[in-house]
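Dear colleague,

Following up on yesterday's call, I've attached the two folding results inline so they're easy to grep. Please treat them as preliminary; we haven't cross-checked anything against experimental data yet. The first protein's sequence and structure tokens come first.
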Amino acid sequence: MRPLTEAETRAVFEKLGKYIGENIQLLVDRPDGTYCFRLHRDRVYYLSEKLLKLAASVPRESLVAPGTCFGKFTKSQKFRLSVTALDYLAPYAKYKVWVKPGSEQSFLYGNHVLKSGLGRITESTAQYQGVVVYSMADVPLGFGVAAKSTQECRKVDPLAIVVFHQADVGEYVRNEDTLT
């Protein structure tokens, strides 16, 4: 387990910035202590400094997951955000999308959100902006990228894609063998 390099930190913060904007600072400096990001086996973990000191005494080979996995670096060194980060992204999300109850299951199976399944969308959401997807009961379901801006969503065909799927809580069931 090691600190992120400058290039890795930039890649992680750029990805997080798409979803929570300048609220990244709130993730690091929390009222309950200081938190940090660490790299372990190409995965980025979010953990408190107190837990970091405790994890330092565990051998690298024995350490499975020192904190919450926020994502991983691919072989081409691109950062891919994981669904395990959803609980930390959702409270700070700048742009949100709510899906109708009939479309929740479709989204949780890994499909994109269609205009017919769109319940609400945050005003002034730009195209290709990172969004957190909620149920109508305000339960975070996952995250994705807005395929259309808020203005385009109003006049688009009901079968058009409005949010590209990236991750959802259904991945816990679909990929339970590979998630750490």
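Below is the second protein, in the same order (sequence, then structure):
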Amino acid sequence: MSVFHNSASSSTPYKDPTPLPDSVPKVQELGSTSAPLKSAAFFIGAYCKEFNEDFMLCKNEAGGDTGRCLKEGRRVTRCATDLINKMRENCLEQFEAHWNCLELNNQEYYACRKPERTLNKCMFEKLGLTKTIPGSPAGQKQIHEVEKPIYTTLQR
């Protein structure tokens, strides 16, 4: 049975009753909400591609049991943390503008193309990363590069 404990009035710090085993490497969680993660998603996909592929391969070989792939999952988290920190160091203003726009526009990319373009430019200039959407048709402009899109905050 669970019991509610008010954390504000607690005199002892929270201790996880089910800590991970020592065989699982320790890693700090990202500590980001959904908007910054969505803003950085395509860059994380490109930057952490090898770690993501290792995790997905492990998960596939384990029959979907992610518990057997904790080490690979921790590597993905470390890689994502590294990129988020680099984004904050190099493109903080553009990164915040983009994820704040996503936060205010129901997490919709199409409503935030202007701050997205400035973030993409900064990421390319300072970190050498480009945003590419997997599965996009070859030879066509990526959706975020279209100058006058059909879908905007004001429909035509």
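For the second protein, one point worth flagging: The longest helix spans residues 70-104.

Best wishes,
A.L.
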